[in-house]
Amino acid sequence: MNKLLTTMFALAVACVTVSAQAQKVTGSVENGAKKTAMCVGCHGIIGYQASFPEIHKVPMIAGQSATYISSALAAYKNGDRKHPTMRAIADTLSEQDMADLAAYYSQLGMKDASPLPANAAAPNDSVQALITRDKDNSCTKCHGANFSTPNDGTVPKLAGQHADYLTVALKQYKSDGHGIVGRSNAVMGAQAKKFKNEEIKALASYISGLPGDLKTVPESRFHRAD
Fold it and tell me: What is the reported pTM?
């Protein structure tokens, strides 16, 4: 009898697992394009600046990986990222909405993009020392040697991203316990806390100057193509 119950339980678990996999959300570029109303006001304007938690350009998200965009939105929704505006927006999104938006932005502006160089420009000695400060967990171990080839979909492309945004983001990982500006991520928190703010700025400045896929693409319904 016990053997029968064990077998039935195993089958039930297997069925649940298969069902969960079958229900995995797949994003639609077409549907995502219809859901950008709350995104374009900041991410669709070239050079647009936010003022919280300090003045900085909003991140470029066109060309970012879909998996990362989805995971970032989920982090805002579940509170791992505390930014009030982004949390409020993420709270209105379903898992399907996140997947659709991620699919849309991951391909936006990529159709005519030029191939990236195989190797990034070498940093100066001081920045190189920052990148490899933790030899077992250097920045390039996750983000790639050129900062645009992450080792995992949940890791963002960083090359070419705005330096002031990168600085703010890294400082937020240092403030993971803060109620309205922190970011909770065990890996990034441990890494960011090893750097002084001026070191973060130097690292961000180098990464922002690298060629990358990221860009801001103004939407035609709000901006004329003159």
Answer: 0.86
